[in-house]
Amino acid sequence: MHIEDLRDYCLSKPYVNEELPFGPDTLVFKVGGKVFALLGIDQLGDDLRINVKCDPERAIALRSEFADTVFPGYHMNKKHWNTMHCNRQLSDSEIQKLIDHSYDLIFEALPKAVKAALLG
Fold first, then answer.
1. How many domains does the chain have?
2. CATH assignment at residue 70
3. At residue 87, what are phi and psi to the nearest 5 degrees?
4. Which residue of 5, 16, 93, 95 is surrounded by the most CB atoms within 10 Å?
5. Residues 28, 34, 38, CA angle at the centre, nearest 5°?
6. b/e map of 17-40 (b: 16 or more CB within 10 Å)?
7. Is the pLDDT assigned to residue 99 strictly greater than 70?
8. Distance of alpha carbon 47 from the chain centroid
9. pLDDT tens for residues 27-76?
């Protein structure tokens, strides 16, 4: 999966904002002000990585199943976040499903008032 495809997919989710709070090398995707994905834009080609939130049990299972591809989240809470190498074992659709899972976890945890403001 290419960096442009990852970026476009994250931005296709409803109510998403893209920011650069950590400098020009890390795209951060938020919904309702909360991060659901971080993409290192200095990592091109085979080393392209994305951090996504994950259910803790599923995170452990993914790390076991894809040991060369999915790792505890880099600079994140290792229990709840995974770092995925995007050009190794995972297909594009699997990566998209994990981005969806992260987005859903964050969106569902938003306060009611924030959800109401987003949903209009």
1. 1
2. 3.90.1150.30
3. -120, 40
4. 95
5. 25
6. eeeeeeeeebbbbbbbeebbbbbb
7. yes
8. 16
9. 999 999 999 999 988 766 667 899 999 999 999 999 999 999 999 988 89
Q: Which two tokens stand for residue 104?
A: 């859903």
How many whole angstroms from its chain centre is CA 61? 17
Predicted pLDDT at 41: 82
Task: Quote the tokens at residue 21.
Answer: 């709070």
Mean pLDDT of 103-111: 98
Q: In the chain, where do the E strands start and end? A: 16-19, 26-31, 34-40, 49-53, 70-72, 81-85
Residues in the chain: 120
Exposed, middle or buried, 98 (CB in 10 Å: 0-12/13-18/19+)? buried
Q: Which residues contact 16 (CB under 8 A, 6 or more apart)?
A: 10, 29, 30, 31, 36, 103
